[in-house]
Design brief:
By secondary structure, the chain is α/β, with parallel strands linked by helices. 42% of the residues lie in helices and 26% in strands. The protein has 16 helices and 17 strands. It is elongated and about 80 Å long. The two termini are 50 Å apart.
């Protein structure tokens, strides 16, 4: 079963807002076995909307439209739907009462106007979907076996309608296959290297299972997607294929996206082993600490961080000897090790991780080439540092270094 998403609004096309609605809708549809065939963003233009509706009708069984339902003249979706379905607008008493109630309870500073009351006008052929959080109702119009669903563009209003009204009705009205995804998260090898290792396994996957490689900044996600009428068969087959995959690349698999991220794996290990952690970050600017402390319960093991961005901060706060910096430069294994060991003593933690590097665009206080990164880990067993070259794009250098740091940390604590 196929669906198409049409987002209406000039603000999307000029980059004023990001279309997060389509992401949410696609995920919710996928959960119930509806594949999104196409996502289209169009202007607040009648002819453009009419053409998009006509094209979608030929391709899919469900068309989800968001946006253009406001009370002002530039919101033309309802009028355009009337033209498309040869329909007229009628006043819905339930919607009108809802709009008046919202103004009475929550918008007391602004009196309700005739423009606001026009929100109660809906196409006569539409089934109204009550919008609990706003004045613009959702609308469901079914014709020739295709369901056209119009929703407000305001994200929290759209999400509530999708969850409470649209998804349940699609489930009731349409027969759908099951779609299952399992995503394995790997760190430490590139896409092509992984492909070589698992080539035979990939070539022998059942026809109803597809594999996608999703590389991103030091990690590669491998997504298995299965589609069919029997959910249990899909689950069993995916599980069997994953058992074949682990012996091939198990050393670089850090869990599945459906279960745990790498930072969750690290947090779990530290919590279970009752170890503590601190960080000293230079060019990563506190992003390692940010990733870890974003998880609930981080205070059980994470004790603190020093963002020693400037060289003087490394000397004055982390007590990195100035002669070490002068001899080896601020971007060096020696400085990274000093940072890690000293922050470990500062916070009295079992483990510490430190980063120093040159993310560009200029070389700063070091002659190290842009992309040169040193990551150090200090533990009760000693301290070591590794050198990496992360390319020449500033944001990618930082993100790849954060991922690599978490990877090294996970490997180190797993030794215990």
């Amino acid at each position: 079963m196929l669906a198409e998403i049409i987002t209406i609004g000039d603000e999307i096309l000029i980059g004023q807002i990001v279309d997060t609605n389509s992401v949410f809708i696609a995920k919710e549809l996928n959960k119930i076995g509806v594949s999104v065939y196409q996502i289209t963003s169009i202007q607040d233009d009648k002819e453009h909307i009419l053409q998009a509706l006509e094209d979608a009708k030929k391709r899919v069984q469900v068309v989800i439209i968001t946006g253009g339902l406001g009370p002002t003249k530039d919101d033309i979706t309802k009028h355009t739907l009337c033209e498309f379905f040869n329909d007229t607008l009628v006043e819905d008493a339930g919607v009108l009462a809802h709009v008046e109630e919202l103004f009475k309870k929550y918008i007391t500073s602004t009196p309700i106007s005739d423009i606001n009351r026009k929100q109660a006008l809906v196409p006569s052929k539409a089934t109204v979907l009550k919008n609990a959080f706003g004045t613009a109702p959702g609308m469901w119009i079914q014709e020739d076996g295709v369901a056209f669903v119009s929703l407000p563009g305001v994200p929290y209003e759209m999400k509530n309608l999708m969850t409470d009204k649209v998804i349940p009705r699609i489930i009731t009205d349409f027969n759908r296959p099951f779609i299952l995804h399992r995503t394995v998260v790997t760190y430490g090898l590139g896409e092509s290297a992984i492909a070589e290792k698992i080539e035979d396994w990939e070539n022998n996957l059942p026809a109803f299972i597809k594999l996608a490689y999703l590389p991103n900044l030091g990690k590669v996600r491998l997504r298995l997607s299965a589609k069919g009428p029997n959910k249990q068969e899909l689950e069993d087959t995916i599980e069997a294929e994953l058992k074949k995959l682990y012996p091939l690349i198990g050393d670089i698999i850090y869990g599945t996206e459906d279960e745990e991220t790498l930072e969750q794996v690290v947090a779990k290990l530290f919590t279970e082993k009752r170890f503590t952690l601190s960080t000293a970050e230079s060019f990563t600017g506190g992003k390692i600490a940010e990733q870890l402390t974003a998880l609930p319960g981080a205070s059980a093991y994470f004790k603190g961080s020093v963002v020693s961005y400037a060289t003087e901060a490394k000397i004055n706060i982390l007590k990195v000897p100035s002669d070490v910096i002068e001899k080896y430069s601020v971007v060096s294994a020696e400085v990274a090790k000093e940072m890690a060991e000293n922050v470990r003593h500062l916070f009295k933690t079992h483990y510490a991780i430190a980063t120093t590097g040159n993310a560009g665009p200029t070389k700063g206080d070091s002659d190290a080439e842009i992309g040169t990164v040193f990551i150090a880990i200090a533990s009760p067993n000693g301290v070591y540092a590794q050198e990496f070259n992360m390319g020449n794009h500033r944001e990618r250098i930082v993100e790849k270094a954060v991922n690599k740091a978490l990877e090294l940390l996970q490997k180190e604590i797993s030794k215990i």
